[in-house]
Amino acid sequence: MRDQIVAGNWKMNKDFDPGLLLVEEIQKMMSEESPGATKVVVASPFIHLARISEMASQSDALYVAAQNCHPESAGAYTGEISAPMLKSIGVEYVIIGHSERREYFKESHELLARKVKAVLDQDLIPIFCCGEPLAVRESEQQGVFVNQQLSDSLFHLNPESVRQLVIAYEPIWAIGTGKTASSAQAQEMHASIRQHLAEQYGKEIANEVPILYGGSCKPTNAEEVFSGPDVDGGLIGGASLNASDFMAIVRSL
Ligand code: PEP
Predict the structure, then answer these.
(1) Which of 12, 43, 114, 247 shows the greatest Cβ crowding within 10 Å of its Cβ?
(2) Ligand 1 pocket at CB < 6 A
(3) What is the mean pLDDT of residues 3-17?
(4) How far is the CA of 68 from the centre of ligand 1 (A)?
């Protein structure tokens, strides 16, 4: 049975106090209506992580994620945060390869491969993001494009490491645009990702990897988008900044 996960990616939003308040609200709702087997992950900016990690240690289903880390474990990299540092404050997941980091910070497949390894070396779980731009979807090359992203940044891993991964399929044309993939489009791509993993690592391992959908998920569309058998949850941007919306999405899984 694969993990069912709903992760909220706050991006560069929420000052310190409003961020903690949001987590308090999420925790309150979680205690009133148990999220069942779903793992609820909060990916806040770095400034909140240590405090949220303390808060999360009090609840069973709440987990903490960073949105990025550096591939080296320490050294002269001014302004960066390493995977061992995240581990030292109780972070459990790290988002790697979000399309905004690929685009604005020019993160390459090679760099992402090193980051994934750095995260796994600390026994943290990478949430590896992949997804195609609109032009690729329009030319119906999305399967080839996403498979290449996976091969380039993940296929250096050994089978045991691949078992630890979470993958997030986030079509770039759906991120922050209000356009969501249909449940059929999401399921088709998730099945294709699983098939690609199976060809490299075998069916058993491929069946263990949770694949989340991300891109304009909202309380009104989440149930529909999550309905495919290969869709194991969501990576939620905008709607994770409001506790009621976020928990409505958790509920719909
Ligand atoms: C994201 O950036 O990971 C994301 C899914 O954003 P949104 O939900 O706002 O489209």
Answers:
(1) 43
(2) 9, 170, 175-176, 214-217, 235-239
(3) 98
(4) 15
